[in-house]
Amino acid sequence: LLLAALGAQAVAGDFDPYRVLGVGRSSSQADIKKAYKRLAREWHPDKNKDPGAEDKFIQISKAYEILSNEEKRANFDRYGDAGESQVYSQHQHRQFHHFHEGFYFDESFFHFPFNSERRDTSDEKYLLHFSHYVNEIVPDSFKKPYLIKITSDWCFSCIHLEPVWKEVAQELEALGVGIGVVHAGYERRLAHHLGAHSTPSLLGLINGKVTFFHNAVVRENLRQFVENLLPGNLVEKITDKNYVHFLSNWKKENKPHVLLFDHMPVVPLLYKLTAFAYRDYLSFGYVYVGLRGAEQLSSQYNINVYTPTMMIFKEHIDRPADVVQARDMKKQLIDDFLSQNKFLVVARLTNQRLFQELCPVKKSHRQRKHCVVLLTGEGEKFAEAYEAFLTFAVANTRDTLKFVHIYNDRQPEFADALLLDEEKYRGKSAVVILERRNNAGKISYKTLEEAWQGSKEDNFILLDLLDQLRTDPGLLSLETVLADLNDELAPMFLIRWLYSTLDYISDCWDSLFHSNWREMMPLLSLLFSALFILFGTVIVQAFSDSSDARDSPPSEKEETAAKAEKNDTSFGKESNSRIPKKGFVEVTELTDINYNSNLVRLRPGHINVVLILSNSTKTVLLQKFALEVYTFTGSSSLHFSFLSLDKHREWLEYLLEFAQDAAPIPNQYDKHFLERDYTGYVLALNGHKKYFCLFKPHRSGDEGGTSEDYDSSLHTEARGKSSCSPGSRSIKNKLHKLSFWMERLLEGSLQRFYIPSWPALD
């Protein structure tokens, strides 16, 4: 052990990060980072094929790790190593630490089978890097699934799964599965992006979605894992009962249909992977020839039950458009066969992507490709014209010519751009020969002068134009710009939203039970924080309600009974001892002295609530007013005052003239003009915006009788009555609904009466 430690220290001592990066000891962090990027780009194993490029890249990474950390850099400058300290009491610990570091990075002393020099070369072609993964692997996962391994140096568990991984990787790659390897030590960003926080980890990638493998690492489990990644509706089981319906869907789906006949009871994984890769172009069915109920289908198409057979059906379901048979059906054979039969003979243009594939933009004079488009409609009325066009297409299809059709009512913009004389072709089919000039939608075209009916004359005219087009490209003399086609087969928004919701729920469910808890911590923290705030609010509200119930003022009846025992002369002394401090409401008298400060120059947003009273009703109304407005005293923008009607009647009547709808003012000939009683009126005055809101008192019986507008009658009650008389209770009832009016005032739903200026208070 001592010799090993000394040897490892000697190796570590020869390592100079400054020399590796080619910088001086006084270099700044910017210079070090610049040198690291330049060397890393030069010696990256994917770009530099030199045998020692990988070791050189590791040294560059280690050197940058030391020099980019100020503490490690200072330790290296002081002691010649990037350790924490060189205190003698920690000397033995550091000897082992250096031994471990030298063993990890240089490894030439021990030659373990999992070190960087002797790492299995079979994984090198599968190594993934972050940019490569994002730009190529993720888009490619929409065509084939990927099985990815996360590994690292010094991963003892990785050694045990290597034999199984090699076997499964070779087998699945031959079937069309993508294989990837991520080294967590060199690609930490990618490993973190994938959510892999430990090694070894196995995961699947399909349609850009990552799924982790959680079972025992054996061949059968890995194959089943990849198969479970695929959608379940890729391949339909076909028998004698449903094959006609399956093949007849070509018109609805606008796709050729593929039938695979095999003697395996389950659909082979190779066929499922092929169906996933070509799902946008073809529909797939599987016939188990050993099953009872498939004899008629096998005999109708003369199938050899001992040889796998693949058939493609297009517009005619009674005979296949193409057939391939092979005892050992390989992926390359299937791809070549399907790539030549991806489209119908006369495909319908249902979206812009299909239009671009069938009618590509010309790249050169020799690569001209023309499209013959049948503009027709749906229904039996147009069936004869379509069949004649299909027959013509079958007889004249070639590489530079594509035949397609389109429904005018589903793509009206496309049809209107090509058919200049709409009346001539209304209710009829038309044929257009076009050539796409660029990707912006510009085309050159020629429309057949007469409507297409499928007669022999129509066939001769179209054939003659196609022959002329071979030698004279200028035949397509008209030009126009086409808008993008509508996607006719796109699912509805509600269905797309439902699928997205189901995928999100599935992801959350999988994350809850299988994902690393480190990933779940933010979600759990958010959930528990929301629950804590919710229950905390409920508990605080409950205690607050109970406290308010204890401190609430007495009820109106109790207050009335208690106040009735006191006369007007004793109110000033006894009210202070009877009313608690918490229920105190500060109400000031509005006089000519404080008129400007309390009203005219009141701050913006502040309102002064003024009670109108007389000397005889002052005591009773103030008590009731305080009880009604007490719950609103918490607002700093509300001020409370009272105005003596005996002193300032003229000022009040001037204001009420601007609110005649709410409180009509009698003229001077009214015999009750001087007797009109305004006690109990409440004004909410906004001094800044020059408007006021008006509360009109109500009359009600002593026992809660009906209420009516108080100003509909004139009160001539004698002044000087005792507050305990029935008249005092009637006066109190004037403010019976003031609290509801205050709520509407704060809501801003009361009617506002504007005045040009505030009158003087004399």
Describe the structure.
It is found in: Endoplasmic reticulum membrane. Residues 546-577, 701-729 are annotated as: Disordered. This is DnaJ homolog subfamily C member 16. It is a single-pass type IV membrane protein. It comes from Zapornia atra (Henderson crake). The chain is an alpha/beta fold. The chain has five domains: 17-79, Orthogonal Bundle (Helix Hairpins); 121-229, Glutaredoxin (3-Layer(aba) Sandwich); 236-340, Glutaredoxin; 352-481, 3-Layer(aba) Sandwich (Glutaredoxin), CATH 3.40.30; 584-659 and 676-697 and 727-761, Glutaredoxin, CATH 3.40.30.10. Helix content is 42%, strand content 15%. The protein is built from 29 helices and 23 strands. The chain has a six-stranded mixed sheet with strand order 10-12-11-13-14-15, with helices on both faces. Strands 16-18-17-19-20-23 form a six-stranded mixed sheet, covered by helices on one side. Strands 5-7-6-8-9 form a five-stranded mixed sheet. Strand 1, helix 8 and strand 2 (178-183) form a beta-alpha-beta unit. The longest helix has 35 residues, at 517-551. It is extended, with a radius of gyration of 45 Å. The protein starts with a helix and ends in an 8-residue tail after the last strand.
Q: Output mean pLDDT.
A: 79
CATH topology of the largest domain: Glutaredoxin
Tally the structural domains. 5
Strand order in the largest sheet: 10-12-11-13-14-15
Sheet with the most strands, sense and barrel status: 6 strands, mixed
Percent strand equals 5-15%
Radius of gyration, whole Å? 45 Å
- Helices, by number, come to 29
The CATH architecture term of the largest domain is 3-Layer(aba) Sandwich
Report the end-to-end length measured between terminal Cα atoms.
108 Å
User: Quick one: CATH class of the largest domain?
Assistant: Alpha Beta
Query: What's the count of strands?
Result: 23
| Structural class by secondary-structure content | alpha/beta
CATH homologous superfamily heading of the largest domain: Glutaredoxin
- Global geometry: extended
Query: Which runs of at least 5 residues are low in confidence (pLDDT < 50)?
Result: 8-12, 84-119, 554-581, 668-673, 701-724
Helix content: 40-55%
Pfam families: DnaJ (PF00226), Thioredoxin (PF00085)
Subcellular location: Endoplasmic reticulum membrane
GO cellular component, one term: endoplasmic reticulum membrane
Organism: Zapornia atra
